[in-house]
Amino acid sequence: MKGKITLNEHRLYVALRQIYYLIFEAEEDIASKYGLSGQQFIVLLAMEIMSKVQNRQIKITDLASSLYRSVYSISTITDRMEKNGLVTKKRNLSDRRVINISITPLGHKKFIRVIKACREMLKRIFLDLSDSDFLSTISFLKTVEKNILSEPALKKIKINSSIRNGKEIVDFINQDI
């Protein structure tokens, strides 16, 4: 276990980092065409899933945990989004420490445009993959995820696998909008 990494380990690490970067940049590019940043799009996606699929009130703390970000980071992003008219924030009347957030009609309109373009991009990216490719890649990535999460510094992180396995989410993303 201890020792030097192999060439294949290095290649895999670089490939995973590059794929992450390319997906991030592709989402950023698409979102920017509709007046959003990639981060704003991901926040709106999480909010849409929470409100429409999971049918629940959205709190800043819920957004932070579902996006694996700090509350401060999500608050900063959503403050900018509120200034741009994409979301509204309100203190919870029963617990003043809690901030509820909702999507405005403008935020929803921009989200719909970006999700449609992202959906088309994903179809193009995955065009040549077979069902077997999908299943083996998902299995491989779950093993890598399990190993990453066994690292002592990451023990506190909880992965929300329901978003990975949720047919309701796929149905929501694929709806005619």
Number of helices: 8
Radius of gyration over C-alpha positions, nearest whole angstrom: 18 Å
- The CATH C-level name of the domain at 7-128 is Mainly Alpha
The percent of residues in helical segments reads 55-70%
Q: What is the β-strand count?
A: 3
Give start-end ranges of low-pLDDT stretches: none
Q: Spatial order of the strands in the main sheet? A: 1-3-2
Shape by Cα distribution? globular
**Cα end-to-end separation:** 50 Å
Can you tell me the CATH topology of the domain at 7-128?
Arc Repressor Mutant, subunit A
- From the 3D coordinates, which CATH architecture of the domain at 7-128 would you assign? Orthogonal Bundle
CATH level 4 superfamily of the domain at 7-128: Winged helix-like DNA-binding domain superfamily/Winged helix DNA-binding domain
| SSE topology string | HHEHHEEHHHH
**Percent strand:** 5-15%
Biggest sheet overview: 3 strands, antiparallel
Task: List descriptors.
Arc Repressor Mutant, subunit A; 8 helices; 3 strands; 177 residues; single chain; 65% helix; globular; mainly alpha; 3-stranded antiparallel beta sheet
Fold and architecture overview:
The chain has a domain at 7-128: Winged helix-like DNA-binding domain superfamily/Winged helix DNA-binding domain (Arc Repressor Mutant, subunit A), CATH 1.10.10.10. The protein is 65% helix and 7% strand. It has helices at residues 7-33, 38-53, 60-66, 71-83, 105-125, 131-149, 162-165, 167-174; strands at 58-59, 87-91, 99-103. Strands 1-3-2 form a 3-stranded antiparallel beta sheet. Helix 1 packs across helix 2 and helix 1 (7-33) crosses helix 5. The longest helix is centred in the N-terminal third of the chain and has 27 residues, at 7-33. It is globular. The model has no long low-confidence stretch (mean pLDDT 88).
